[in-house]
Amino acid sequence: MTILEMLTIFFATVGVAFILLASFGVLRLPDIYTRVHAVGKAGTLGVIGVLFGVGFYFGSLLVLAKMLALIGFFLLTSPVAAHMVGRAAYLTKVKAMPSNAPDELAGRYDEQRRLL
């Protein structure tokens, strides 16, 4: 087994494990805010691991460069998407679990101008 094959197996396995962890988070966590957090963190790490595995599998510098570009794109867009989903949930008044942190934005949202 070559070093590239070992790296492929390692990164793909770690990536799939993080994606599985994110899916458990979606199924088991109590509200939208904690679910978005689980998917935003574990899902991002999972996709990065799988993309590294794909890059090492093909062993080409060009493919690895494309995978790095995809990883960069994903690192830029995934947190923004998670933030926007959480913000949309908050602005539509989706309630959080009482055991979560207190609502620090209470009373700060101007509904007429739609500004926080």
In a few lines, what is going on in this structure?
With 116 residues, this protein is mainly α. It has three helices and no strands. It has one domain (3-91).
Order of helices and strands: HHH
Compute the gyration radius: what is it?
18 Å
**Biggest sheet character:** none
How would you describe the shape?
elongated
Q: How far apart are the first and last residues' alpha carbons, in Å?
A: 55 Å
Number of helices: 3
How many E strands? 0
Total number of domains? 1
State the share of residues found in helices, binned by percent. Answer: over 70%
Structural class label: mainly alpha
Strand content: under 5%
Provide the low-confidence segments as ranges.
none
Mean pLDDT: 91
Protein name: Na+/H+ antiporter subunit G
InterPro entries: PhaG_MnhG_YufB
Family: Belongs to the CPA3 antiporters (TC 2.A.63) subunit G family.
Transmembrane segments: 6-27, 39-58, 64-85
